[in-house]
Amino acid sequence: MSQQQRQVPLVFQDLPEGLAIATGNNAAWLCHCSRTLPLLGKAGQIKGASDNTKVTCEECNASYFVVPDGGDYKRAVAVKEI
Hints:
Elements: E1 5-11, E2 18-23, E3 26-29, E4 39-42, E5 55-56, E6 63-68, E7 76-81
Parallel strand pairs: 1-7
Antiparallel strand pairs: 1-2, 2-3, 3-4, 5-6, 6-7
């Protein structure tokens, strides 16, 4: 069986909500700065971002966290700008 890709919310701090794509505990999304390459991250701990799970855009330094589904490192359910 192939992996299922799902759309999940992309929550910005000061912009309308967008969409990210998730497969398992990984997610990909486009930064609000219009960087042409997508950012890619994995879900972290339920308590929030850590150095290992925070994703920072190289173009504008915006940071993001892939939110897990109710437990550490579970499937990705959203991406939040932090």
